[in-house]
């Protein structure tokens, strides 16, 4: 096992120059232990293809297409980047993380939501929704009042 807190976290503008777009680790690295770089690379490449297709068929300027790609990249990955960066730098948990993890161990709905976030199919804003946080608080409070014994 290797652990370190000085991993080079990189966040670059997804469209740094006219006519240039970055995907994957060229644009964003968050945490080497999570092995998410390939997923982000494939997702961002797909967004780039979808964004520039109209420009390639000459239906719109490339500048417009790359602006759309930039918006999509930032909208979909900024939240994940912020949360993963905090974990990669070995920062202490924020107060919501233990709450969500504790509730996920006791509640299949919370666990499924946390799983969808972990596989990056759910944006962080959904993970931090008031409804999910209220559910997690309720599940955790219920466990404090009537703890279950663990049986083998």
Index terms:
single chain, 152 residues, mainly alpha, 2 domains, two-stranded antiparallel ribbon, 6 helices, 59% helix
Q: For the terminal residues, how far apart are their CA atoms? A: 29 Å
Biggest beta sheet attributes: 2 strands, antiparallel
What strand line-up does the widest sheet have? 1-2
SSE topology string: EEHHHHHH
Shape: elongated
Q: Extract low-pLDDT stretches.
A: none
Helical run tally: 6
Number of strands: 2
Assign the structural class, choosing from mainly alpha, mainly beta, alpha/beta, alpha+beta, or little secondary structure.
mainly alpha
Overall pLDDT: 83
* Structural domain count: 2
Rg calculated over all Cα atoms: 19 Å
Structure, described:
By secondary structure, the chain is mainly α. It has two domains: 10-88, no CATH class; 96-145, no CATH class. 59% of the residues lie in helices and 3% in strands. A two-stranded antiparallel sheet has the order 1-2. Helix 1 (37-56) packs antiparallel against helix 2 (62-88) and helix 3 (96-106) packs across helix 4. The longest helix has 27 residues, at 62-88. The chain is elongated.
């Amino acid at each position: 096992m290797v652990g370190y807190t000085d991993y080079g976290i990189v966040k670059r503008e997804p469209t740094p120059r006219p006519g240039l777009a970055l995907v994957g680790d060229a644009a964003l690295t968050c945490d080497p232990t999570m092995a998410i770089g390939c997923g982000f690379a494939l997702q961002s490449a797909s967004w780039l293809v979808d964004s520039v297709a109209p420009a390639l068929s000459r239906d719109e300027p490339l500048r417009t297409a790359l602006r759309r790609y930039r918006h999509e990249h930032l909208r979909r990955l900024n939240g994940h980047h912020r949360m993963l960066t905090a974990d990669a730098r070995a920062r202490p948990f924020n107060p919501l993380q233990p709450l969500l993890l504790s509730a996920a161990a006791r509640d299949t709905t919370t666990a499924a939501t946390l799983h969808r976030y972990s596989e990056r199919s759910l944006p962080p804003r959904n993970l931090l929704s008031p409804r999910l946080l209220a559910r997690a608080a309720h599940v955790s409070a219920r466990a404090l009042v009537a703890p279950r014994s663990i049986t083998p």
